[in-house]
Amino acid sequence: MLDVRRLRLLRELAHRGTIAAVARALAYTPSAVSQQLSTLEREAGTVLLERTGRQVTLTPAALTLVAHAEVVLERLEQAAADLAATREGPSGPLRIGAFPSAARTILPAALVALEEGHPQLEPHVHELDPAEVAAALRTGEVDVALVHTYDFVAALPEPGLDTIHLFDEPMFLAAPRTMEPLPDDDPLRRWREAPWIVAPTTTRCGTMTMRACEAAGFVPRVRHVIDDFPTALALVGVGSGVALIPQLGVADPAPEIMLVPLPMQRSTWAACRRGALTRAAITAFASAVRSAASNLQPPRP
């Protein structure tokens, strides 16, 4: 009989690539991970890993087993969701991952709604970059997490995860009131000669900014690379450049900053392990976030 815990280790190895990375993620020692995978090979009766020095490669048999492991783990999540449905309302701990702008603007009201509507639920919030969400969900660090997508940046499907759409928010170009744009029909191309403040291109926000500018017919002249909306707005406020900011990032803009609405948006989703989407605690959380988002006031244009 194949052991589910060892199947989980094999799946993590397929996603992370090295035994050391699996050990760090799951709080094992590398030798313990190797021993468990060797035991799984004996259980499977076939070679799962090809070892070359410190490198390991999954064999075709291992990849087949990983695909089955995804199905098994999904069914276990569904079983947990079905058992939870037999209880009277959601209860117990709910570990929530959230990106900073949502944690600052959306989550406080959502947590109040959860406490009032489901007093037996115990939410625990972890601030997470969306790039870290998939790994945190698979290892069980969080049960549900907020992630976002931007126009111009397609979201790649993550094996073993489900998502549900929560809300959309408009994008704004933040510029100093002292900076004059060029005349143009395109609201983004007007700022083609301005210095730009962008997030790193390794982030979705940074990729979105570069692609949006390229679609408008220019390459932005990057002056600052900042992965934090409040810091970017502070630099805009002192005249250091312009930046693309979603609504949640400009809840209270300074008077010296003007916001230009753009025909673009950022979308926020709730992500969870596949099979857990019907879990009462997760549906309650999604409902609370949607309600909180619907009550947001648009920023001053």
UniProtKB/TrEMBL annotation:
> InterPro entries per the record?
LysR_HTH_N (IPR000847), LysR_subst-bd (IPR005119), WH-like_DNA-bd_sf (IPR036388), WH_DNA-bd_sf (IPR036390)
Q: Which Gene3D superfamilies did the record assign?
A: Periplasmic binding protein-like II (3.40.190.10), Winged helix-like DNA-binding domain superfamily/Winged helix DNA-binding domain (1.10.10.10)
CDD domains reported for this sequence = PBP2_LTTR_like_6
UniProt keyword annotation of Isomerase present: no
What Pfam families does the record point to?
A: HTH_1, LysR_substrate
The organism's superkingdom is given as Bacteria
Q: Where is the HTH lysR-type domain?
A: 2-59
Span-the-membrane segments of this chain are none
Record's keyword terms, sorted? DNA-binding, Transcription, Transcription regulation
The question of whether Transcription is a record keyword is answered with yes
Q: Which family does it belong to?
A: Belongs to the LysR transcriptional regulatory family.
Query: What is the protein named?
Result: LysR substrate-binding domain-containing protein
The organism encoding this protein is Pseudonocardia alaniniphila
